[in-house]
Amino acid sequence: PDNAVITQAADLLAASKNPVLVLGGGAADAAEELRVLAEKLDAPVIHTINAKGILPPGHPLRAGENMALTPIRRLLAEADLVLAIGTEFGETEMYPDPAPIEINGQLIRIDIDAEQLTRGPVATLPILADAGLAVSALNRAPALATSRARSGAARAAATYAAVRACWWPAVGRHQRIAEIVADCLPDAILVGDSAEPVYALNQSYQAPRPRSYFNSSTGYGTLGYGLPAALGAKLAAPDRPVIVLAGDGGLQFSISELAAAVEARIPVILLLWNNQGYGEIKSFMEERRIMPIGVDIYTPDFQTIVRGFGCAVARPDHLDHLAPALMEASRRNVPTLIELTPALFPTA
What we know:
Layout: H1 3-15, E1 19-23, H2 31-41, E2 45-47, E3 62-64, H3 70-78, E4 81-85, E5 106-111, E6 125-128, H4 131-140, H5 152-166, H6 169-184, E7 189-192, H7 196-204, E8 213-215, H8 226-236, E9 242-247, H9 248-251, H10 257-264, E10 269-273, H11 279-287, H12 302-308, E11 312-314, H13 322-330, E12 336-340
Parallel strand pairs: 1-2, 1-4, 2-3, 4-5, 5-6, 7-8, 7-9, 9-10, 10-12, 11-12
């Protein structure tokens, strides 16, 4: 990064009264430097989907995950300075209602792609640089040598509480499942298809560290992506549990990849949310009073199919049975299908 531009950015940050950080996937390899910077600035932090895990779970500066939600949009609009690092401000971060971001204060953007700096919200100060190098330089800048209290933790806590109040019922369901996963397999990588659990956990899940949560909803929403992507993740990180989040519709696009997984002894854990159709699309149709078409699909017997591939299966009939199923799956050398249904949440 250009030293003069870093100095200018540091001066702006030092002078700000209520800054906010927005972190994207381009900042994932700068987690420790970003934690130091956020704490120096005492600034609330918004994680986009691919940035999950930059701040550890429960960090007091975590303000939320989804820029579509009113509390986070208000936080951005009221900030006198927003520092955005490695993020496109993309529409897929704003499910289910994407809208232009309103930033009324100054905006500093750091990105390694010059073209990206010209898209989306216009930056007061664009910085063309690697995220890690730029944040490291900011942390060394004389203007930021002294930390300053800006009520960041209180602002973050208030925003996060308001965000939780915006969660729809599916978020609470799948957050409970994610908490069980985190208790059993605390360093797991979650790889998502386009499915209800993914859209839900995009709102709520706090990953244990960077590059521990990714899915196809951040791009074209490709159905069938989750299983083959998880196989790649397990090959790249063989010592970490890898869990696929998929729905009954999406899994049918790539279920044949289980043959490759069995051949290569790639023991991913497939958490299948089986609501017997394209539930998210159906909900959108019903909310708009559109006759549901093509969403109540035929649902095969996944247990029989998966056994035929040589994989293990489980179908918990109570949430208390999910943890033992996960632990057993983690000890196998072939994939395990754990089939979950809405019946696990009878009051939802």
